[in-house]
Each structure stands twice: as C-alpha cells, then as structure tokens.
C-alpha cells in the first residue's frame, strides 16, 4: 500500500529516486519493474508496479475498438505507457516526452495512491492542494443535483 507525499528532485538525466521506504516493497512485488503512463484526466504521470498495470492494460485492450471514447482512453493510457526498471540506486528514468507533457523539471512530488503513485510537478501539485478548498462546494452541488456517487453518501472522516 503506497501512501503519502514525497518531494523529490529529478537529476539532470530525468531520473527519479524512489524513496527508500518504497524500494524494498517494490523489489518484493515486482522486482523493480514498473510502468509509467500519462493520466489523461489530471495531467500527472501514473506509476504502477508491473503486476498492478497488467490487468489494467488487458481491460483497456479488450474495450470495443469502434467506440471512440474507448479508443481515446486506450490510446493515451497504453500508447504513452513505458516499462521502467529501478536501477541499483533505486532510480527510474522517466521518458522525456512524458516529462515534457507533464511539465516535470527538477522539483517533483511522488504521491502514493494505494496500488500506484502519481508523479506531479511541484507547482502543479501545489495547485491541486489549493483547489482542494473547492471540494466541499463541489460535493454540496453534486448532492443537490443528485449526482453524488453512492459510495460517498455515507462517507465520513
């Protein structure tokens, strides 16, 4: 289970050092084999241990090819996916086209999301945090419009 926030500095080659607290788990789960892809919704990168990615890719490839939305989703998620391997220092090399697309430069943030990580530019992550103030109003509006997911109706912190 991956959770928490880790500020990280990419090196000059675009390598990200996986925080020490995750390295052993990733070696046990996937032998350091990971998949990175573009998140079409938020504009960050998604980083999966390879065994977590495989069923997602199978589902995407099984979507109907004549459905425009299915094709677009698969095109982005599978089409931008890259296999990565942690090196002996626990680093992964993020592909340049993905770094450019998500505006990743030196300062990035690795955010644990349960079975995967999100990789954000530090500036974009700050904007996400600032936008979190809008969540109560969005939930209130969704509740009024009857659009709130059933899973959130009884959710409490």
Structural account:
A hairpin with a 6-residue loop joins β3 and β4 (45-49). It contains seven helices and eight strands, in the order ββαββααββαββααα. With 157 residues, it is α+β, with helices and mostly antiparallel strands. The mean pLDDT is 93. The strands form two sheets. The chain has a six-stranded antiparallel sheet with strand order 1-7-8-4-3-5. Strands 2-6 form a two-stranded antiparallel ribbon. It has a single domain, classed as Transcriptional regulator MraZ domain (Chemotaxis protein chec, 3-Layer(aba) Sandwich), CATH 3.40.1550. It is globular and about 55 Å long.
Output the keywords.
157 residues; 42% helix; Chemotaxis protein chec; single chain; globular
Quick take:
This protein is of the alpha+beta class and 157 residues long.
């Amino acid at each position: 289970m991956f959770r928490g926030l880790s500020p990280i500095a990419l090196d000059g080659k675009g390598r990200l050092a996986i925080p020490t607290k995750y390295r052993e788990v990733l070696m046990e789960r996937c032998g350091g084999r990971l998949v990175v892809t573009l998140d079409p919704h938020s504009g960050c990168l998604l980083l999966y241990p390879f065994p977590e990615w495989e069923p997602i890719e199978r589902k995407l490839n099984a979507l109907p090819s004549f459905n425009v939305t299915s094709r677009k989703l698969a095109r982005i998620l599978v089409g931008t996916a890259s296999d990565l391997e942690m090196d002996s220092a626990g680093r992964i090399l993020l592909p340049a086209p993905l770094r450019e697309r998500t505006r990743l430069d030196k300062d990035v943030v690795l955010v644990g999301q349960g079975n995967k990580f999100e990789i954000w530019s530090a500036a974009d992550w700050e904007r996400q945090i600032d936008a979190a103030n809008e969540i109560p109003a969005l939930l209130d509006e969704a509740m009024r419009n009857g659009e709130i997911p059933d899973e959130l109706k009884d959710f409490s912190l």
